[in-house]
Amino acid sequence: MMSEKKLTTVALVTGASSGIGEQFARQLAAQGNNLFLVARRADRLQELAAELSSKHNIQADYLALDLAEAGSRQRLHDEVAGRGYQVALLVNSAGFGTTGRFSQTPVARSMQMLRLNVDALVELTGLYVAEMVERSAGGIINIASTGAFQPIAQMAVYGASKALVLNFSLGLWAEVKDKGVQVLCLCPGYTNTEFASVASEPNNPTGSTMEASEVVQIALKALAKNEGYVIAAPGDQKFLASTAHLLPLRLAASLTERMFSGHE
Amino acid sequence: MTEDNKPQGVVLITGASSGIGKEFARLYAKRGFDLLLVARREERLQAICQRLQEYYGIKADYIASDLSEPASPQQLYDEVQRRGYTVGTLINNAGFGLAGGFASSELEQAMQMVQVNVDTLIELTALYLPGMVQRGSGDIINVASTAAFQPVANLALYAGTKALVLNFSMAVWAEVKESGVRVLALCPGATATAWADVAGMPTQAANRAVSPKQVVRGALKALARNKGYVVIASPEQRLLKWAATIAPRRLIAQLTKRMIPTEGA
Questions:
Q1: Do A172 and B249 touch (CB under 8 A)?
Q2: Cβ atoms of B48 and B15 closer than 8 Å
Q3: According to a count of CB atoms within 10 Å of the terminal CB, is the N or C end of chain B lower?
Q4: What is the model's pLDDT at position B3?
């Protein structure tokens, strides 16, 4: 006799309408996971949900939301629970970057980036990690960047927001490691997504990009091994990120200023 | 700081009613600067302003504001403008910590900490920096922490906010270096203030090795030389930061778990 399942287990993916978030949705679905997708673009979410549910015979639900808005995260949490889902994996992929001098960036834009890259990520992590600890099961993937490892002039807020994500996630990883919950901070380098069009990205100093699909493959492997953080980037960018902490801070900041000031 | 390169305008200090903020007020007043102090506790601000005016003969004004409110930075900026001040020095000192496992923390309090330590700090910087760049002079001091340099378990989010402040400040420092504006990320180790009490750390366990006076004096010295960031910490506190440069992040994160005492952990 089949027992009635009260809750459907899902992977909750934010920023799911494109790029790395979309790749997470695709690969998690291919692995047989049910999905709950979040982004602002309802039409894209609907298409993706329909495609993946039929292709992989999984359940794919979605909600269109602007996670930069305060109140949206609690609303998402309540909606997900209300629809009978239990979140086994949270992927905080929603985020964007801008380039240019901080003093010339509109205040509202900087704040919107902070609200999405930091506030939303932290609040969603907070909303779900407690219940995961209680169940002694669950995973959280937070997307940072190779930009997390040193100050980046011309991307001051973006780089700093990712530094927060990296250190916060690693601290949390250590805290919940022996409680059955896995936390991964994914640090992509230059990836082939819409990021560049939103950020009007300065010249990629090393010239190489990685496909979002490969970034996600690396992430899922690292999560399975509970590695805490992983850099998913072309070799040269990975090397730079891994060794950035050895460079004196002032030198790192000055170098990025010189590197990117040609972009003006 | 010499009289020659003293920035024009008032010194705006957030979190000025106690601790490091209050010491910044005292030292700037002593050096002849007019002040604009911001904190939640109006009575304390009033008393501090009165005392500093009497002692040092400078003008000290105050604005009571709860910087954990998302609308507060813009409101503060508007009020400062309404009162006719030019801010020559901005000291983003308001902030607090939260000790203990993130999973068992009060999420509302954690988000307030993000608002104060991150959103308010960045927004105030965004509001005041363009004017400074335009005038070709100005100082911004953002208070980070020795916790900025590595992940710290049981202070995970707090350390994250300080890593953000450090990296942000250094990036902006590099961007405005040629413009005459100075930016400093101030990284004190555990300081003798109410921080530990607010964060929920047992007071006897908190290693309060540094005084607010040392922190502020060190800050102003580093600012005068436009060093970008400065660490004011005891030798023991520095050890952790040094270890972070040679030990893998994962190891540091796990080691710090045992280091942070929490009440009722």
A1: no
A2: no
A3: C
A4: 46
Strand partners, A233: none
A44: pLDDT strictly greater than 90: yes
Q: What is the pLDDT of residues B175-211, one digit of tens each?
A: 999 999 999 999 998 777 778 788 887 665 555 678 9
- What are the tens digits of pLDDT across the range B226-258? 999 999 988 877 777 777 777 788 888 888 887
**Which residues on chain A are in Cβ contact (under 8 Å) with B104?**
130, 133
The residues, ordered by sequence, that sit 6+ positions from A254 with a Cβ below 8 Å of its Cβ are: A153, B174, B177
Listed in sequence order, the residues at least 6 apart from B248 whose beta carbon sits closer than 8 Å to its beta carbon are none
Q: How many domains does chain B have?
A: 1
B55 inside domain: yes
pLDDT in tens, A201-227: 655 766 789 999 999 999 999 999 999
Most distant pair of Cα atoms in chain A: their distance: 69
Give the residue among B76, B13, B82 at the shortest CA–CA distance from B49: B13
In a domain, B3, yes or no: no
The CATH number given to whatever domain includes residue B51 is 3.40.50.720
- Asked if residue B264 belongs to a domain, the reply is no
Interface of B with A in 138-167 (CB under 8 A): 150-157, 159-161, 163-167
**Residue B159 with chain A: CB contacts under 8 Å:** 167-168, 171
pTM: 0.94
Please, which residues 245-264 of chain B have a Cβ atom closer than 8 Å to chain A?
245, 249-250, 253-254, 256-257
Residues of the domain holding B244: 10-259
Distance CA(A17)–CA(A14), nearest Å, equals 8
Supply B13's token pair: 């200090």
Is A122 within 8 Å of A46 (Cβ atoms)? Answer: no
Name the helix (H) or strand (E) containing A9. strand A8-14
Q: Collect all residues with Cβ–Cβ distance below 8 Å to B61 and sequence separation of at least 6.
A: B10, B34, B35, B36, B37, B49, B83, B85
DSSP structural state of residue A34: E
Residues of B acting as catalytic residues: 158
Place of tokens 């004196």: A248
- Amino acid, res. A97: G
Q: Any idea what DSSP says for residue B191?
A: B
Number of Cβ within 10 Å of residue B143's Cβ equals 27
Residue A8, phi then psi, degrees to nearest 5: -100, 125
Which chain A residues are Cβ-neighbours of B71 within 8 angstroms? Answer: none
Between CA A210 and CA A212 the distance in angstroms is 6
